């Protein structure tokens, strides 16, 4: 089978005949996984430092600490980044290891709904304590 250069790149005759090719979403998914990993590393260091600093604090001190706008914003960013990173990672695992298409679709939808709900609940909790 010979490959031919086309305007879309190098494709085999079979792939041209079937219309197969890039779905154009894999690179975005890969890049978002890396971006959230970097943000999780930075925000995770801040979170660990904060937890160690507040280790012996009571609720009132932690509430006052979280009421500071910088801390509340960083906590919300950490929650969003962590949950989005988890959704992206679980999506890859599900796509790779669940072979029944119906179950795969249901599992992907359930994962996204569950993690979206948990993320919203965490953001709400941070806002409730901070405000």
Which features does this protein show?
single chain, 131 residues, mainly alpha, 3 helical TM bundles of succinate and fumarate reductases, two-stranded antiparallel sheet, 2 strands
Describe the fold and architecture:
This protein has 131 residues and is mostly helical. It has a single domain (24-130), classed as Fumarate reductase/succinate dehydrogenase, transmembrane subunit (3 helical TM bundles of succinate and fumarate reductases). The chain has helices at residues 13-18, 26-53, 59-67, 69-97, 101-130, and strands at 4-6, 9-11. It has a two-stranded antiparallel ribbon. A hairpin with a 2-residue loop joins strand 1 and strand 2 (9-11). The longest helix has 30 residues, at 101-130. It starts with a strand and ends with a helix.
Specify the CATH homologous superfamily: Fumarate reductase/succinate dehydrogenase, transmembrane subunit
- C-alpha termini separation: 66 Å
Count of the separate structural domains: 1
CATH C-level category: Mainly Alpha
Helical fraction: over 70%
Shape: elongated
CATH architecture: Up-down Bundle
Alpha carbon gyration radius: 22 Å
Strand order of the largest sheet: 1-2
Main sheet properties: 2 strands, antiparallel
What pattern of helices and strands is seen along the backbone?
Answer: EEHHHHH
- Number of continuous helical runs: 5
The structural class is mainly alpha
* Low-confidence residue ranges: none
């Amino acid at each position: 089978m010979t490959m031919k250069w086309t305007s879309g790149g190098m494709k085999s005759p079979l792939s041209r005949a079937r219309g197969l090719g890039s779905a154009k979403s894999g690179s975005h998914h890969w890049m978002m996984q890396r971006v959230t990993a970097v943000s999780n590393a930075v925000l995770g260091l801040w979170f660990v430092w904060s937890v160690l600093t507040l280790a012996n604090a009571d609720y009132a001190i932690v509430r006052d600490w979280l009421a500071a706008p910088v801390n509340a914003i960083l906590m919300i960013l950490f929650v969003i980044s962590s949950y989005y990173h988890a959704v992206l990672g679980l999506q890859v695992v599900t796509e790779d290891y669940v072979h029944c298409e119906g179950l795969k679709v249901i599992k992907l939808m359930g994962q996204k709904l569950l993690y979206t709900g948990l993320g919203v609940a965490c953001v709400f909790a941070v806002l409730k304590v901070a405000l």
